[in-house]
């Protein structure tokens, strides 16, 4: 890979609605995230952090500005191309876990591989491996309803990493968990970041969770208010 | 491409399995629709076959001459003059293309033998009746000439009458009480089974026409019907015209008067009946097809509900990298698999129903692969047509909005 960062945002704005009702969620963001970094994005609600995560996750396109992901101009991609980028390079973890109900952990984790057209045997093996990574060996055939919140989030993380993504996007991954489960999940994310070199961008409003990250970016009113990088322990 | 379709199929089957009960209720409409269409058509085919079989067992090349106009709207057989025995001779001598002419005069009377009694149709006729009706004797003999001319009290029994009155004992030579006179059994007809209208053809007693006229009806000249059998290879239409002209002449009908009798061709009756049954089959099939359509609308309804209910799921799939057309394909395949499954269940159901009903109605069971295939493909088509709109809605969702959907 070249020296250019994994993610480069330049002058990103995002406006919802138009005319008088228009609301500018992002007012010009410049941001570089190098590969392998664990970034936490913080900020009060309405500060634009979720919008930024959606843009970084290619779920949405910016109103203006440029977004380069590994030298790909994401801002020029259409809906289908963005979906392909998500499929091949990105993984998502959500606050509400967002697992398919009445579907086993194994099948949940296999889902992204299905869309990649992986073969059955390979799919099974990769899903088992990913579940092992998050410490859920032996729980493959349990459905979300039979798993605790922490376990559900682990399944969600396994689903996000089963495709070996370059970038993992986490939207308040500990928001629905108690503090102890939250710390366990954070430790898991740190391990994935350190061992597999997965770049992680996480939105959170809990400072003690943000502390796990290498870098904390604070958003305020659609702009980057502070960007604090710390030495890895 | 195949891999993609296979995956979509797998996803669809998983989705169906996750909601087994709802899936079943969804396809119930299609199940019933398909079963109804196939059952109607199969039973219709069976009925048509049964009628044509029975008409041909009635006698091939059979014409029936009856007094009165052909029944129909505004027509009436009342008041028309009966035929005479002399008509039989006249027809026999003047129309050579006929093989046999049998006069028939009869009524429904109570028969008694020993301590058994039974109501049955008693027909006074001649031996020609055996030819025209395609009857053969299982035992005994037919009428002697002198029995016919003198009107002796002898009779030939149908198989049902024998069973009811004599059980397993041979009836030949035994006495049978017919209304108020005693009659000797001289023959037994070979069993024929059920007739075209579901009547029992074997529930019959034959006796010489003069015997019946004198002792049963009390009118020594009239016969109520003539049965005429055509020679092989003779077409019915010209002969029917000849008979018509002859009978008009004998009945002294003036030029301007309508016929007061009519000739029926059994082949024509068979065709008419088959046609009627075909029409009924088509009609019932059409009604059933409407229910199939309603079943399709049921599928669309449930699929739309399902799309709303599964908005989050669709959001997850889209976020994970599912393409629009993959989500579309998944929901479409889900609808098609559902309705095709419904079609298969419907076919199985119709098979059971048809087997049961044909057995119950003593009908032949004619498996019709065409209608089965058609119903199956139509049910799959319904899946495509009614699954498309919900699938489009699912595929068009914005992943961000869908993920936030509660």
- Strand fraction of chain A: 25-35%
Percent helix of chain B: 55-70%
Major sheet: arrangement of strands of chain B: 3-4-9-6-8-7
Query: What is the overall silhouette of chain B?
Result: elongated
Helix content of chain A: 25-40%
Q: Averaged pLDDT of chain B, please? A: 86
How many separate helices of chain B? Answer: 13
Broad structural category of chain B: alpha+beta
Assigned CATH class of chain A: Alpha Beta
Number of domains of chain A: 1
Strand proportion of chain B? 15-25%
- Unreliable stretches of chain A (pLDDT < 50, length at least 5) are none
Record field, number of beta strands of chain A: 10
**CA-based gyration radius of chain B:** 33 Å
Terminal-residue CA separation of chain B: 34 Å
Domain ABC3 transporter permease C-terminal (chain B): 286-399
InterPro entries (chain B): ABC3_permease_C (IPR003838), MacB_PCD (IPR025857), Macrolide_Exporter_MacB (IPR050250)
Keywords (chain B): Cell membrane, Membrane, Transmembrane, Transmembrane helix
GO molecular function (chain B): transmembrane transporter activity
How would you describe what is shown here?
The complex is a heterodimer of chains A (233) and B (406). Chain A has helices spanning 49-56, 79-89, 105-116, 120-133, 149-161, 179-196, 207-210; strands at residues 7-16, 23-33, 38-42, 64-69, 72-73, 90-93, 167-171, 199-203, 215-220, 223-229. Chain A has 7 helices and 10 strands. Chain A is 34% helix and 26% strand. Chain B folds into 2 domains: 2-54 and 271-404, no CATH class; 81-259, no CATH class. Chain B is 57% helix and 18% strand. The model of chain B has no long low-confidence stretch (mean pLDDT 86). Classes of the chains: A alpha/beta (233), B alpha+beta (406).
